[in-house]
Design a protein that fits this description.
heterodimer; A: mainly beta; seven-stranded mixed beta sheet; four-stranded antiparallel beta sheet; 11 strands; 55% strand; B: mainly beta; five-stranded antiparallel beta sheet
């Protein structure tokens, strides 16, 4: 059974489009995250939700909007896509919100903006 | 601002050798230091972690050495194997946030 799953795995789109990435975890965790990994492999937190409440909102353009319909799902919607948005986006989950909880990562969604 | 600096960026080690990856942090309030391992096409996965009140932690072939006064910590992989070839990230936690280092691409050659 996949613990943290993301769809789609690959996403190729043109500049200016709007796209969504979906994430689901079946671990019963309370906290979920979105990370961005750029071409140099740098991994940066974007958002985190604990029990559907936003607790981390890093300096991310307003074009990025996370939505957590329930504890098991955290989706990422991106408006007006730009070339610089090309990256691998990882969803993760953990049992609790504190940084010392192990984070379980999904397989990633490779977004390519042309 | 990069609060966790990691080196080297890439590392090639012969099979059976010791791989050493170093990290340095700036914020003394960090209270948890994990290492994550990432294979190509996969998400990172927790490898081993340490708290700042401990100077060393060992799990199998993997050891974290922690120097609180120097604000540095390192990952040692003993008897490195080709299956250890991956990208390794150190990280540091403060409250709800985990800050990752820039990653080290480790290649183990036969």
């Amino acid at each position: 059974d996949t613990a943290v799953s993301q769809t789609p795995k690959y996403l190729v789109t043109q500049m200016g489009n709007d796209k969504s990435i979906k994430c689901e975890q079946n671990l019963g965790h309370d906290t979920m995250y979105w990370y961005k990994q750029d071409s140099k492999k740098f991994l940066k937190i974007m958002f985190s939700y604990n029990n559907k409440e936003l607790i981390i909102n890093e300096t991310v353009p307003n074009r990025f909007s996370p939505k957590s319909p329930d504890k098991a799902h955290l989706n990422l919607h991106i408006n007006s896509l730009e070339l610089g948005d090309s990256a691998v986006y990882f969803c993760a989950s953990s049992q609790g919100a504190w940084g010392y909880y192990e984070q379980y990562f999904g397989p990633g969604t490779r977004l390519t903006v042309t | 601002q990069q609060q966790v600096k990691q080196s080297p960026q890439s590392l090639i080690v012969q099979k059976g050798g010791i791989s050493i990856i170093n990290c340095a942090y700036e914020n003394t309030a960090f209270d948890y230091f994990p290492w994550y391992q990432q294979f190509p096409g996969k998400g990172p996965a927790l490898l081993i972690a340490i708290r700042p009140d401990v100077s060393e932690k060992k799990e199998g072939r993997f050891t974290i050495s922690f120097n609180k006064s120097a604000k540095q910590f390192s990952l040692h992989i003993m008897d490195s194997q080709p299956g250890d070839s991956a990208t390794y990230f150190c990280a540091a936690a403060l409250n709800e946030k985990l800050t990752f280092g820039t990653g080290t691409r480790l290649t183990i050659i036969p």
